[in-house]
Design a protein that fits this description.
This protein is α/β, with parallel strands linked by helices. The protein has 18 helices and 12 strands.
């Protein structure tokens, strides 16, 4: 069906089209379609045909449905956004990664030996895998023994399934040297599959930039060294873009980098970043010397080999109120004055070592509290102690079989590590538990998402995993 088809033209004259368009733009921020009625109508028509609806009013009622609307809205957004991606897209930016960004991060993180990267709006995964190839082929000596994590997120379930599979067609390699393709992929008919070594440390998960909160400790979307969000924000209104850029800034560690598409740089919108112009591209860096609001501090990174059982609770000069609380607890050799809120505050600040100390002190006197084990697992995961994080989650679930957030986070961890069966089992547990809850219930420990939000997220993860 072409954009000029009479079916699309008739949809534009549907009495409810204007209301549907307004609702869509308000709900998603996709201001790109404000003056593109024919294009929008064609894409809506494809959704109407697929779900067997005939008019805009019926479709608007579906989108507003409390149970089915969110899922359908995600499907429509996937139809409205273009998943155009290919390997090593924008050569100048990959040169900047190779020569400027990664050398800076490696020097800064030499003690922690950790590297965290987020590909936001990852589509079928070519960008995330391009980064993995660059790191392993050209920087492996500098990153030997490091904990490297690359997280790709998108709202298109089909794209995420393909990304996890690592399957690509010829068109995805139009900027890839033949030598790299032969070395990093295996051919199967008309398709190419990325070699398993380049999938190591690369994970994909569902996330809607406009609707779902971030930074998010629960969903492991925080404290990144590098965020790439290239050509996703062009669809959004200026106000939505401003909000997203602020959130990306909050998701980065001090000195962290943000890469956006060539059409997206804007001095006014990115004024909270240092702007670094190099030949062919513009880079954004979160300044290390930036003065933070009260309650935020510079992230401290620690070696994954640290023995947490030997950690002592000591004052930490980077945090004020929590540090005083920790010192008091240390002097009294008691966790009586500590609370879970102290762990959460320290975690929100990125002070993982102090958060771990606080958790261990709480476990001394409250070791049967599943929430303490849950928060401890979040801290351990951020410190790169993945197996310990999984074990702490399993202890939380052992103590409370209905601890739905522990099941959900365990699913995310297993999904990221490629344990498809384990992840499916965990998400199925979430689905079964949430069925017994009021869908309006708000989880204060999960970025204040509702039970209905958790249902939708879980169903999406299951659909992606089952397609893989």
């Amino acid at each position: 069906m072409t954009l000029s088809s009479p079916f699309c033209e008739s949809l534009i004259f549907d009495p409810a089209f204007t209301r549907l368009k307004a609702y869509l733009i308000e709900s998603t921020g996709l201001a790109y379609y404000c003056d593109k009625d024919s294009d929008l109508a064609a894409r809506i028509r494809r959704r109407l045909s697929k779900i067997c609806l005939r008019d805009c009013n019926s479709y608007l009622e579906l989108l507003k449905d409390s149970e089915k609307g969110d899922v359908e809205l995600d499907e429509l957004i996937a139809e409205l956004t273009i998943g155009e991606t290919y390997f090593f897209r924008y050569r100048e930016q990959f040169e900047a990664l190779r020569n400027t960004i990664f050398p800076d991060i490696i020097a800064r993180n030499r003690d922690s030996r950790r590297l965290r990267i987020w590909s936001a709006g990852c589509a079928t995964g070519a960008e995330a895998y391009s980064i993995a190839i660059l790191l392993k082929r050209e920087l492996s000596a500098s990153l030997a023994g490091w904990d490297v994590s690359i997280t790709g997120t998108d709202i298109n379930r089909g794209f995420l399934g393909r990304a996890r599979e690592g399957k690509f067609d010829e068109w995805a390699f139009r900027s890839t040297p033949d030598e790299v393709r032969r070395a990093c992929f295996q051919r199967a008919g008309d398709s190419w599959f990325i070699s398993s070594e380049y999938k190591d440390g690369v994970g994909f998960q569902y996330h809607n930039l406009v609707k779902h909160p971030f930074p998010s400790l629960l969903n492991n979307l925080c404290f990144f060294d590098l965020i790439l969000c290239r050509n996703a924000m062009i669809y959004f209104s200026r106000d939505i873009m401003r909000g997203l850029i602020t959130q990306f800034h909050q998701c980065l560690v001090d000195g962290g980098w943000l890469l956006v598409g060539h059409a997206e740089p804007n001095p006014e919108l990115f004024k909270s970043f240092q702007t670094i112009i190099i030949p062919g591209t513009t880079l954004y860096r979160k300044a290390r010397e930036l003065e933070y609001p009260v309650g935020l501090c510079e992230m401290e990174c620690y070696s994954p080999s640290i023995d947490l059982q030997e950690l002592a609770v000591v004052p930490n000069s980077a945090t004020e109120a929590p540090a005083e609380q920790l010192a008091k607890a240390d002097n009294a050799t008691s966790a009586a004055t500590l609370q879970l809120s102290d762990v959460r505050l320290l975690a929100d600040q990125g002070d993982w070592k102090a958060a771990a100390r606080c958790s261990l002190k709480l476990l001394e006197t409250d070791g049967l509290n599943p929430k303490v084990h849950f928060y401890y697992s979040l801290v351990l995961e951020q410190m790169g102690l993945h197996s310990d994080a999984e074990q702490s989650l399993r202890r939380a679930i052992y103590l409370d079989r209905a601890f739905v957030l522990a099941h959900y986070y365990l699913g995310l961890i297993l999904q990221k590590r490629g344990d498809r069966r384990g992840a499916i089992r965990s998400f199925e547990n979430v689905r079964a538990i949430v069925r017994t809850m009021d869908l309006g219930l708000v989880f204060a420990d999960a970025d204040e998402i509702t039970a209905a939000d958790l249902v939708n997220l879980t169903e999406t993860h299951l659909e992606v995993l089952q397609r893989s």
